[in-house]
Write a structure and sequence with these properties.
With 121 residues, the chain is of the alpha/beta class. The chain is built from four helices and five strands, in the order E-H-E-H-E-H-E-H-E.
Amino acid sequence: MAGTFCVTITHCRTDGDKATVAFVVANAALGSEKNTMVFLSTDGVWCAVKGEAEKINEGAPFAPLKELIDKFVAGGGKILVCTPCMKKRGITEDQLIAGATPAGGAALVEWLANGSPVVAY
């Protein structure tokens, strides 16, 4: 059984529900003692931009997206943000939240090549 887990997120502004559920799953993976990485691409990169997660609250039974992201980072989860996707949207590294790191697709491939399960939202 793999000791790692990956959640890829391609939505934020376009579908806050998917972003919210994705971070619920990412936190569940951390709670199951999996070394967990979230990879944000396309519209999902907005999850890691300061001030954006605060705009998304899907309501009960889900916690607001900002709380879920903060819990994930505080629990040791890794957030990688697609560098080309950031550039396409005019997002710079200084706009990212603490705990988010720009990365290319090679970082995702490396994580998955070691046998990590992945779920996509």
